[in-house]
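Late entry, evening session. Most of the bench is empty. Finally got around to the prediction I had been postponing all week. Sequence below, unchanged from the version circulated by S.P.
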Amino acid sequence: MSAALKAARPGDVLTLKNGEWKDAKIVVNHGGEPDQPVTLRAEAPGRVVLNGASLLEINAPYVNVEGLLFRGGAISHGSVIQFNSHHGVVRETAVVDYNPAAFATKYYWAFFQGDHNLIERCYFKGKNHLDPVIGNGLEDSRHNRVAHSFFRDMPAASANGREIIRVWGSGKYEGREDDGAFFTIEGNLFDHADGEGAEIISLKSNHNVVQNNTVVATLGCINI
């Protein structure tokens, strides 16, 4: 896999064989172009199971990742899915029960550091430790989007910083009206996704859009 990722060129489609992948560090450093993304996909959606300390890091533009299942593993810090560039897409991918042994161990399940990235039609279930499910960088992170995804069974705990989605950016510490995160959260389902039991979505920045989401049996609010 590492050799294939290093050799990837615009328009290439890389397929991960079905099966269990333990401690797989999927680091994508070679991207594509607007009309020719590099695509990394499962042979069959949901049948490429990543566990142990497996993670995904997208460090190049125009990279699409499809059909992966992170289940039953854990990392020590950082993020399970990390965007570090622009115009990346993760779709039809799941992170399920990817929890450490200790509640106090902090890491995100997905984190945006870059612009114009997208998570869509993804499934997140069972996060029970510190840090939000999804977050973004305070700086250099704009126009990202989480759409048509399902957040389920996040047990409540009386600890701050366990939002389902937390959006940082300009406006967190100052009121500059011309800048912000420009983050879009739309068409998602939150079902028993309590997290910290106070904030389901926390907008700590300017110029964000939250629309057409559904909240079912979930403690908390959309905090602006």
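Two things to note before I forget:
The CA atoms of residues 133 and 164 lie 5 Å apart.
The mean pLDDT is 97.
Will write this up properly tomorrow.
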